[in-house]
Amino acid sequence: MIKSILCAVDGSPYSESVLRNAIYLAKQFDAIIRALTVVDIRLFDWTVATGADSFVPVMPSADFQAESQRIQEDKAKKVIDKAGDMLKKEGMNFELKSAAGIPVDEICDKARQNDLVVMGIRGEYERWSDKLLGVTLESVSRQISKPLMLVDRNFVEFNHIICGYDGSNSANKALQLSAFLSKSINLTLDVIMVSDSEEERSAVLREAEKYLQPYQISFNLCHDSGDVADVLVEAQNQSKNKPLIIIGSYGHSRLREAILGSTTIQVMRTAKKPIILAK
């Protein structure tokens, strides 16, 4: 069930899309939306940002810190007020929260009280990020305990689901969420298994089929070989629909990711949004 949705909003152009995606899902499930903006204390609390015992400790004046804090708090109020206006106009059940702290910590902490978290693929400093993921987003995606929906700048109402499935525990959670959304919103579902072994592909897809049958939904079982992220992104690009990709998050160790790369990160960077990382 999705009965509560946490929206992480900031001053970036992605915040409206974050809210639009949350509104779309909230209307499907009669869910409450909780909008959160975080005043990053590292921008004005230099003891947190650099530490008094840093290599080159730089401690600005108290007036500078107070003014920096005031500016950040004023901006946060404008952001959360605008989110509230938008949600009120849509007639949503919502709560607004402005918190001071480290964004990753605050988002992950509040996520525990919600069923789904929605974030923009980039934040306020996206003009300098090119195709790299923001540090906050990547850290949240690793630490968060709830499904994470990533959206682009423009809202796209998805009408189809693509689920990457390899039989792993994280992929099983993705399949479960895909089946739930497919059944609840009446969407078709493509389950894609990528492996160079035909025997493995067949076994895993039989497993997926057995799991999906009780849901009585429309689904297709697909298989391919090659790079997992490339196959999923290509399937999305070739689709005549507007698909939502759902994948498990970080199925391998950080060491393996360092050597071979992370499928999760690659999909996050290259796929069209929205995508959901199942947890």
What can you tell me about this protein's structure?
With about 280 residues, this protein is of the alpha/beta class. The chain folds into two domains: about 5-150, Rossmann fold, CATH 3.40.50; about 160-279, Rossmann fold, CATH 3.40.50. It contains ten helices and ten strands. The protein has helices at about 15-30, 45-50, 60-90, 105-110, 135-145, 170-185, 200-210, 230-240, 255-260, 265-270; strands at about 5-10, 30-40, 95-100, 115-120, 150, 160-165, 190-195, 220-225, 245-250, 275-279. Strands 3-2-1-4-5-10-9-6-7-8 form a ten-stranded mixed beta sheet, sandwiched between helices. Helix 4 (about 105-110) runs parallel beside helix 5 and helix 8 (about 230-240) runs parallel beside helix 10 (about 265-270). The longest helix is centred in the N-terminal third of the chain and has 28 residues, at about 60-90. It starts with a strand and ends with a strand. Residues about 255-260 have low confidence and may be disordered.
Helix and strand topology:
Elements: E1 4-8, H1 15-29, E2 32-40, H2 46-49, H3 62-89, E3 94-101, H4 103-111, E4 116-120, H5 135-143, E5 148-151, E6 160-164, H6 169-185, E7 188-194, H7 198-212, E8 219-224, H8 228-238, E9 243-248, H9 254-260, H10 263-270, E10 275-278
Parallel strand pairs: 1-2, 1-4, 2-3, 4-5, 6-7, 6-9, 7-8, 9-10
Antiparallel strand pairs: 5-10
Helix pairs in contact: 4-5, 8-10
Keywords:
279 residues, alpha/beta, Rossmann fold, 2 domains, 10-stranded mixed β-sheet, elongated
Short description:
By secondary structure, the chain is of the alpha/beta class.
